[in-house]
Design brief:
Strand order of the largest sheet of chain A: 2-1-3-4-5
Order of helices and strands of chain A: HHHHEHEHEHEEHEHHEHEEHE
Oligomer: homodimer
Shape of chain A: elongated
Number of helices of chain A: 12
Structural class of chain A: alpha/beta
Largest interface: A-B, 55 and 56 residues
Helix content of chain A: 40-55%
Radius of gyration of chain A: 27 Å
Number of strands of chain A: 10
Strand content of chain A: 5-15%
Chain lengths: 353, 353
DNA sequence: CGCATGCATGTGACCGGTCACATGGCTGTT
DNA sequence: AACAGCCATGTGACCGGTCACATGCATGCG
């Protein structure tokens, strides 16, 4: 009995055409097609036209996978982050995606949930794979920093935010959070507040021996420069509930008249705690947020905060990652500096009787 | 003169070992290594052990790219969405990523910014590539729906949210927004409001002839069932500014006592507009949001809203996409139904003098 | 005891691109 | 006129996996 050999692969509906198919249709070799795809100058214009026509008529699209395999690395980026929802992270991600899409490049996301060695290793292995392409590590917090430090040197990666350890050959791009926090603190001091309390985001001082985060440092800078007392730092989680708890503590202390919050979400929790304690904002206590999330202009009171160009940071990191991936020169990042946005939540301190 | 042939590739630092290297180290063929990697039962236990030892000592990781090329499709997913920052989208994305990571699979993101044919085509081409793996289209809005409809049948894709067109063979998973909106509307009617106004998110009725969005339909359902008048729909953009404008319009009308907002961001803009118009919430006007974004419990007043399990939706879509990718059976999605969360922004209507 | 059967393993081809090098035609120079 | 040199293009190998099929050895059965 004669058995008809079955096709090697399942007959995929509409098997995608390859450069060989295009070559046959155009009457040239596959290499010439490859040259056209890569915009090589050594192709006669008429040949190029013929190839392009064949590409068009066959609906050919080059395979990113095959190209990545041949080239050794995917032409795309993977973003490593500890979070995708919080505003600073999400907005950075948005800038990254936007820039990647503009270049026709793929973007992947990998979340790292804990700094445990096993998970850090998994993450590092993941982005070590060639299909990850260039890597951008969002190092706003200890998790991102842990991944950054564990990354083998040969992985083409850049960091968003300054690395905790002094530069070890990795490109790092950061917004000037230190300056921003100093400006915000100064604004409160200028209004007449004796000092400014600070409810910090988790990243700040989260790890033993870590370089103090920019926001924290800026706050201290301004207080020190003004000769104001430096109150004890209030730690806080990313969740608003813990910000509320921090706000309760501050509300119970009568000499608290100005609070710099690590971000706008924290400001929201603090504000509600003050409200529940019967304290008026800004009548009794002034608060300043950080990030300028979209809703903050519509709160009651509208929040005075610092606008951060996270999208710009994302775009800059993308271009840096591509430079790292292709071995090109590092472009000069163009970042919009942070800007204090004055709204309704800050005012002079109440007069003491 | 004798020219020493240069190495074919640039000497990549620490060239990653391949299965051939592992095979050599373990004294077996590359196919046996492949079998071990794929957990084939036809490998002798001792051979398997030897191979695993070689893998361990060489630090070998299989190349996702090579596997994808050979298999015809990447073992991962790509999410197509019109937005990554708005809560509903971001939370769905988070659920997708979480589920993908749990399975050790890669996740990519592709944003589609306009429904113009050229951009839709680019997006479709992008996910048509084998490296995209399984595709999840977040079809909360006309952009997502446009991509979904333009997707060739052979692309393994599923939709988050019900497709506008009646099922055309695509798996679609949605939260019960219609029921949720009806519940929220009913809550307001139960409080004694004569009717409920609705400020809708852009997706609702955005396209000519589109099936009305679930939220819109549910709102109408409840009003109709109660025999309440159905006010004119107020359209609104995704930006809070337009929600503020919608709120201004509603504030100027004295018979508006209850507003169902298309999402919590809209509720924020509407609430501020009411505040600026001197209307108290909930004293004069009750408002209900949608989504239960993290901060809504801390607003003043805390927002009554509908909690939506977007993360669960994301997880369900991931599993559906994998089933589509591998040809396995579609699992039954396990979704937490929406839940009305009663807080401070709703109350009985003011008494008329 | 001979041969079919099954299991563990190996060999070759292939996925769809790119790189290195070869080839052949045309032009320019001496 | 002969040869060098450039240009356009073609050929073979390779990236790192997987699939189809072949092989060799041990076992089971009549």
């Amino acid at each position: 009995m004669i058995v008809t050999p079955t096709p090697r692969r399942a007959p995929r509906t509409a098997a995608a055409p390859s450069i060989r198919d295009v070559a046959a249709a155009a009457g040239v070799s596959y290499q010439t097609v490859s040259r056209v795809l890569n915009e090589s100058p050594r192709v006669r214009p008429e040949t190029r036209t013929a190839v392009l026509a064949a590409i068009e008529s066959l609906g050919f699209r080059p395979s990113r996978t095959a190209r990545a395999l041949s080239l050794g690395r995917a032409r795309g980026i993977t973003v490593v982050t500890s979070n995708t929802v919080l505003y600073g992270y999400a907005a950075t991600l948005q800038g990254l995606e936007e820039a990647a899409r503009a270049e026709g490049m793929a973007m992947g996301i990998r979340v790292v949930e804990s700094a445990e060695p096993a998970e850090v290793k998994q993450t590092v292995d993941y982005v070590g794979d060639a299909s990850a392409g260039g890597v951008v590590v969002i190092a706003f917090d200890p998790l991102g920093i842990a991944v950054l430090e564990a990354l083998p040197e040969h992985v083409p990666a850049v960091a968003a935010a300054e690395p905790a350890a002094p530069d070890r050959g990795r490109v790092a791009i950061a917004l000037d959070e230190r300056r921003a926090a100093a400006d915000a603190t100064q604004h409160l001091l200028d209004l007449g507040h004796r000092t400014v309390h600070h409810v910090a985001i988790p990243s700040e001082g989260g790890r033993e021996g870590a370089v103090p985060g920019g926001r924290l440092a800026g706050w201290r800078d301004a207080l020190r420069a003004a000769g104001a007392p430096i109150p004890e730092l209030i730690g806080c989680g990313w969740d608003i509930r813990s910000a509320y708890a921090a706000g309760q503590r501050l509300a119970s202390s009568p000499d608290v008249t100005a609070i710099l919050c690590g971000n706008d979400d924290i400001a929201q929790g603090v504000r509600r705690a003050l409200y529940d304690a019967g304290k008026d904002v800004p009548g009794d206590v002034s608060i300043v947020g950080f990030d300028d999330i979209p809703g903050s202009a519509y709160w009651t009171p509208a929040l005075t905060t610092v606008r951060m160009d996270f999208a710009g940071l994302g775009r800059a990191c993308f271009h840096a990652a591509v430079a790292e991936l292709t071995g090109g020169p590092q472009p000069e990042p163009a970042l919009t500096p942070p800007a204090l946005v004055l709204r309704e939540s800050t005012a002079p301190p109440p007069h003491h009787p």
